[in-house]
Design a protein that fits this description.
Layout (H helix, E strand, L loop, with lengths): L19 H10 L5 E4 L7 H10 L9 E6 L3 H11 L3 E5 L3 H20 L3 E7 L3 H10 L4 E7 L2 E8 L2 E6 L6 H9 L2 E8 L15 H21 L7 E3 L10 H11 L4 H7 L4 H14 L2 E3 L7 H9 L5 H12 L27 E6 L2 H19 L13 E8 L2 E7 L6 H10 L3 E8 L4 H17 L4 E7 L8 E5 L6 E5 L6 E3 L6 E3 L3 H9 L7 E5 L3 H21 L1
Length: 560
């Protein structure tokens, strides 16, 4: 947009957003004086965005808007933009001097309105909000107080320094004030309006100073509960007590979801109530014994593994497997399709070790399976047939030589208890599980955490966690984490770990975390569980990984 170069004012910071979502997010967390909206954005039209802003009840719906259209539809567009709520309009291309004059006029008016003593508009931390409310009480102010944080919105009506109505999406009265104070920060706007109290049907006056004393205490109680439930990947198990039959609907939903294996984050997403109320309820239910926080997936990891592997005959075959792998030359000469199926002369011994391959992406896991088959085929010059017992599952055998084989299962995506129990019966000699991860955003973390917990409940064997990438994405995959201030999801290449950038929404400085450390934290992976990054189709990387897994099994069996 060439006209941005024409804005030459030292008192103005220019922020550019090219999508509806990013524009609205910016408005919800920033103090904006003027919007310049082009006819077309990446995900909607400028007209649609203006209508959404002006028809909302959010505090930024009165920010002046300068619309830019196109010459080919100037008359028609001008009428449409003004009807939708634009304050000014120009058809592009517009003369730089005219554009600058119109921008200056709207900016001067907007800044004057913001500096008007009867109006307050600013962003602040929650700790500063009580001071603002007490100032309005001292000045006996009458009008409308609007507050927003991310997608949350609140409004309070004041009459002569007292709050006569307060509302958020789920809260009213004093509870609504508590909700505002519980936000980490908020965009606050107060407009004096003597007619505002007349719109309240049943006013109930709240003394601000007295109300704040109660609300601050409630916020402290909530913050304590939030510290105990600070990890959205937390899972739950049945408590020591049954929930009373006369409990409310939400409490029954929480118990049902918690006992079905859903994480705390998934419960938050599924139950459409105020998150603060839900956090306090879950905290109370844990204290009362109706649900319990489940141990992390790898609790008692070393002890369980040693007991399991001592009963499996592994040593000789794994030592031979390692020796065969060490002889391979890269790049591998043969594809799986280039070698024949194994003849009956090769005895496949299903009592030998087996490996289960699972993960969050069916496509990526199957590519890893194909790579492992290719590695084995280049060792033995033959390969085994593949079968399936369930949709999405693949069962085969890695043949390294005439006497050395390892059964390999690419598991189905849905890891329910019935399926895993049958898998354990079919593969009692399972000696290792490779869990493949293709994404580290919040929904994926929740699903991966749940799957790892399900697998660990059935298989007490060594695990290896692999962060997989595809060749077209480079050697390392991308991963997603959230901005600490505005919670916008940031997708970053793993090779950029440690680098510093800015959030495109709130412009906060963000440091890219170490991807392996990030995965360990989010998935509660203990030190003894290997976690690596490698491409799904890298022959040499998977050869090294297979050799490492053999060592881990042998080490676990012998020494732990």
């Amino acid at each position: 947009m060439f006209f941005f170069d024409q804005i030459k004012r030292k008192d103005v910071n220019l922020l550019v957003r090219q999508t509806r979502e990013r524009a609205l997010h910016l408005l919800s967390i920033s103090d904006v004086s003027l919007l310049i909206i082009d006819r077309n954005l990446e995900d909607c039209t400028g007209l649609e965005l203006i209508k959404e802003i002006k028809n909302s009840d959010l505090y930024f719906n009165d920010i002046p808007i300068y619309a830019i259209g196109h010459n080919d539809k100037e008359e028609e567009e001008c009428i449409e933009f003004f009807k939708s709520g634009a304050d000014d309009y120009s058809a592009s291309p517009v003369a730089p001097s005219i554009f600058q004059a119109r921008v200056n006029k709207l900016l001067d008016w907007s800044i004057k309105q913001k500096n008007n003593p009867v109006k307050l508009s600013t962003q602040m931390d929650s700790s500063e909000i009580p001071g603002i409310l007490q100032l309005l009480e001292t000045e006996q102010s009458t009008g409308i107080l609007q507050a927003s944080h991310s997608k949350d919105y609140a409004q309070a009506i004041l009459h002569k320094g007292k709050i006569i109505e307060a509302r958020t999406e789920y809260c009213i009265g004093k509870d609504a004030i508590t909700e505002i104070l519980a936000w980490p920060f908020a965009q606050i706007k107060f407009t004096e309006n003597d007619d505002a109290p007349d719109k309240v049907e049943k006013p109930k006056a709240l003394n601000i100073s007295a109300t704040l004393m109660d609300c601050v205490l409630d916020v402290d109680i909530y913050n304590d509960a939030k510290k105990r439930l600070d990890d959205t990947e937390l899972a739950f198990v049945h408590g020591t007590k049954s929930l009373p039959s006369n409990s409310n609907r939400v409490a029954k939903q929480v118990v049902t979801m918690a006992n079905s294996g859903l994480s705390l984050g998934e419960i938050y997403d599924a139950i459409r109530v105020n998150q603060r109320h839900l956090t306090l309820m879950i905290d109370q239910m844990i204290k009362a014994g109706y649900i319990k926080i489940a141990p992390p997936p790898f609790d008692n990891y070393l002890k369980d593994n040693g007991q399991t592997l001592r009963s499996i005959r592994t040593t000789e075959s794994l030592e031979q497997c390692k020796e065969n792998l060490s002889k391979l030359l890269f790049p591998l000469a043969k594809e799986v399709t280039d070698v024949p199926y194994a003849s009956s002369s090769i005895l496949i011994d299903h009592s030998q070790p087996s490996i289960i391959l699972a993960g969050d992406s069916d496509t990526t896991v199957k590519r890893a399976l194909e790579t492992m088959l290719k590695v084995a085929a280049n060792s033995s010059r033959v390969h085994a047939k593949t079968s399936s017992q369930r949709k999405g599952e693949k069962r085969t055998t890695l043949i390294f030589d005439k006497h050395t084989t390892i059964d390999l299962v690419c598991s189905a995506q849905k890891l329910d208890h019935h399926y895993l129990s049958n898998l354990q019966k079919d593969y009692p000699s399972c000696s290792s599980i490779i869990y493949c991860i293709s994404s580290l955003d919040n929904p994926s973390n929740q699903a991966n955490h749940r799957n790892l917990r399900k697998l660990r409940n059935v298989f007490s064997v060594p695990f290896t966690v692999a962060l997989l990438s595809e060749p077209e994405e480079g050697y390392e995959p991308t991963f997603t984490f959230e901005c600490g201030k505005c919670t916008h999801k940031l997708k970053i290449e793993m090779s950029l770990e440690g680098s510093i950038g800015t959030c495109p929404i709130c412009s906060t400085e963000v440091k890219t975390p170490d991807c392996l450390a990030y995965a360990k934290e989010k998935l509660h992976i203990v030190e003894n569980v290997p976690i690596v990054t490698l491409p799904a189709r890298s022959d040499s990387s998977w050869t090294t990984l297979l050799s490492m897994i053999c060592d881990d099994i042998l080490d676990t069996k012998t020494y732990r």
